[in-house]
Amino acid sequence: MPEWLNILLRSIGLFFLTLLLVRLIGKRQTSRLTFFDLITGIVTGVMAAAVSLNLIKDLANGLIALAVWTVFPALIYVLSIKYKTVRDIVQGKETVLINHGKVLEDKLLEARLTPEDLLSRLRKKNVFNFADVEFAVLEPTGEVSTLLKKDKQPLTAKTLGINVGQESVPQTVMLDGIIMDEPLTAMGLNRRWLHTELEKVGVAPENVFIGQVDSVGQLYLDLFDDTIQVPKPKTKELAYATMKKCQADCELYALGTKQPEAKKMYEKSSEILSEVIQELEPLLKR
Questions:
Q1: Other C-beta atoms lying within 10 Å of the C-beta of residue 244
Q2: Residue 235 confidence (pLDDT) above 80
Q3: What is the rounded distance in angstroms from the CA atom of residue 65 to the CA atom of residue 155?
Q4: 108 with 176, same domain?
């Protein structure tokens, strides 16, 4: 067999074998890799390349070495999930770098970080003054996690005392002009509703690049033709305005009628609508 054909067949076989073995190790984001993960990935790649190029003459020996460097890390990951001691040895422990606003110099030295390294990593977290940090922890991945002091933390709806409605994941109902029935059904909708909404904004289905429906049934569109401006959905605003108008009408009728029973009925209806509006306001006005 020619050498080039031998290398080609080895490379193709090892490509799929390495893909299978890497899947065995598990998924990890590149930014979340520990030093051990990095070494494992490099060694696995070097082993696969060496076997592909026939640098390791005995194919069985190469495959054994490749299997060891994939099966053993997978086994270690399983053990690290179950036992914290193994996890601390393989992945390392977190290191507190700033505690109550004070930089811990001995911890910096232990983590082999200079003050410039610490400031650089804080800037990556949009923290430009270390005095604003209450706690900073060096994670096993090398990333620095920060907790700002109370007076430096950004405002949230909770700190402002504002009630907000719950949000669910938007469903993608159209991609590349193709209607996706399963997400529509999950939202309790159908194709007729979708075509009706598209007709309201004057958009043909084949011109839709992405279409999503949010938790309250509003359709958001992105078109292939970027020159066309699609109006923003106003379902929530219209529902809120309609309920306010109904409440105002009930109050007006209660003031205008001379019949005690009708007056009482309109006042009661106005109170009920007021309670409903107050309950739905966080959802409809955010």
A1: 13
A2: no
A3: 54
A4: no
Burial of residue 243 (CB within 10 Å: 0-12, 13-18, 19+) is middle
pTM to 2 decimal places: 0.52
Task: Quick: pLDDT tens for 80-113.
Answer: 888 888 877 777 788 999 998 899 999 999 888 8
Task: Tell the residue number behind the tokens 């700002």, with chain if given.
Answer: 148
| Domain match, 85 and 105 both | no
Question: 12 and 58 share a domain?
Answer: yes
Q: How many distinct structural domains can be found in the chain? A: 4
Closest CA to 284 of 218, 190, 185, 189: 218
Q: Which two tokens stand for residue 134?
A: 């209450």
Structure tokens at 72: 């053993």
Where do runs of H (alpha helix) occur along the chain?
3-25, 35-52, 59-82, 84-91, 105-110, 115-124, 181-186, 191-201, 235-256, 260-284
* Backbone conformation region of residue 91, classed left if phi is above 0, alpha if psi is from -120 to 50, else beta: alpha
Residues 110 and 144 in one domain: yes
